[in-house]
Amino acid sequence: MTRFYLDVHALQTFPPSNINRDDTGAPKTAVYGGVPRARVSSQAWKKAVRDYFREENLLDASELGVRTKRIVESVAERIAALAPAIAGVEALQAADETLKATGLKTEVRKRKGDTTKAGESEPVPEAKYLVFLSARQLDGLARLAVEGAGDIKTFFKHKQNRDRAREIADTHHSVDIALFGRMVADAADINVDAAVQVAHAISVHRVENESDYYTAVDDRNTEEETGAGMIGTVDFNSATFYRYAAVGVHQLAENLGQGLRDGEPASSPVRRAVEAFVHGFVASLPTGKINTFGHHTFPDAVIVKLRTTRPISFVAAFEDPIRGDQGGHVHEACDRLAEFVPEIERAYGDDGTTLTWVLRVGANTNRLADTGEEAGTLVDLVAAVGKAVAERLEKPA
Amino acid sequence: MSVLTLRLAGPLQSWGANARFSRRTTESAPTKSAVIGMLAAAVGVERGDDTRLAPIAALRYGVRIDQPGIRMRDFHTAHHAVTGKAMPLSERFYLADAVFVAALEGDYTLLADLHSALRNPVYPPFLGRRSCPPSRPVELDLHREGTLEQALRSTPWQASSWHKRQHRPGADIHLTVLREARPEEVDAANTLRDQPLSFAPEHRRHALRSVISDSVRFTHSLERRAVARHDPFDAFDAAEEKSA
Questions:
Q1: How many beta carbons lie within 10 A of that of residue A24, not counting itself?
Q2: If you measure CA to CA, which chain B residue comes closest to A3?
Q3: Model's pTM, two decimal places?
Q4: pLDDT tens across B183-223, in order?
Q5: Which residue among A278, A314, B128, B242 is least enclosed by CB atoms within 10 Å?
């Protein structure tokens, strides 16, 4: 199949905030170009994208996955819904056996004191690790469990039934599994390699963390000490980030397989996944300490490229840190990109087959206007990218 | 023999040789296993396809540390989807701000295939971890004739200009090279378990490999910056970062 990649680049400014903490509570940092930078880890932003899919209903629930240890309960609920006669302990047991047949390991976690009080249900087996299964996979496993519910242990003694369980866990991946991958240590054959690379976001300029000393007044304590009811510190920084992610569209297509619904073109799941990813990556926000700092911002500039050659990060444009001595960092960061992008594309890109879109806000970003086809809104950008992806997928190789 | 050279540069890299469980460490230079894995991925060798992996893994490997970077510890948390409780924490180590030149010696046709696959990869390259994309395309050069040692001697110093500026013009620069031993050198070599045998997810296997630590010497010539800029505080910044 034709190989092609989508890369997404964004410049986004945050006011004082602490969106991704390390173990000491300070915002994460990295050194680049010899100076300290603010950093947001890739996993923090991927989590934000997955949450965004759900909260904004970018995708149908049937296209999303659940990442949980309580996977036995999830399947048991579906069994009970399919066949109300099988419920409670029986449903849980059927679910447990079915999941074990896929190669997953489950265990009963002992509760404190290990006494089951009256009215409290029996402890439920859980996976030993977070398991990521799509809604369709959970449904499929529940159907298989119902089929073998009469004598579930004997049912899975037959190899063909165990194979069916594995097959269900290995096809019809949810969009988020196809994008971000799945790793199961005990059942490596149902692992899914992520189609997306999300880089750690780093600031385009030097950043030193600062510490805010705060006091809180006790409103009702008027007689005794009139000082603070409590004191503390919170670390924060303020930064303009360069954010980058690349999607292997051909790999995404392979992970997702053919159309999920009857009668839709084969490219549909991929198109929906790409649209959701671009939208989610641009608009999502890690919510660390969001109520303390209210860092609700959007990127000033977004560049999206669809190419047949390998994806290219533009982070090297900022290896020499931006000084911001004319005030702010966005203006200079956009100027840097406007110079760097044509240079690196000339040297390593493939002009003839690369499509470029730009979404930008404000006069600071003017120099990026000629970088690609301008999109007026995020919705336009997402639609244009989705359309181009579908066209390329349907074009015979 | 022919040699393919790669430039491995990016804000973050992570090259684990015995990174397990919740403590994911990094070596101070790219491991052979990771670089072979990256090349195999680029040509589309699936995990577990040990037959297609074998000729790539058989290439002779060496790496030069052009800019060592800084070891960085990252703290990773995950939360339970239902209860919101914290899951076991894990520590991940990275090399920040590092630049390496890796070289592979072997058959020309194979190296030429790998070279073109890096421009058109089935699975895109990353620097040891998926969240660490390279800051520039990784393929550097394909030498039809030559040895690993020659290529690592002749490839210009790839360090960033800010890093080079910390060295006096005319000064001798010694770059560490970690390369596979020749048969006669094996006795003097260290060993590292990063010779890939299989990337099959259910049973990854690595053999021991002998590594010779060597160095190459450059005479540093100062690059002229495009725009002359003078900031007397730069000297303080540089001194401060060195001591940090």
A1: 7
A2: B122
A3: 0.85
A4: 888 888 888 889 999 998 778 899 999 999 999 998 887 65
A5: B242
